[in-house]
Amino acid sequence: MNKIVMAAAALALSAKMFGGVFEYRFEMYVDGYDQLNVQGSTLQWNHVAYSTPGPVTISTSLDGVTQMVGVLWDPTWIGSQSSVFLGLTPAFPVESSILAVTVVSGRGPVTATTLPTFENNGLLTLDFDDLAPAAGDIYDVRVTFEAASPVPEPSEYAMVGALSAFGAMIWRRHLRKSKSISA
Question: Can you give the pTM of this predicted structure?
Answer without folding.
Answer: 0.71
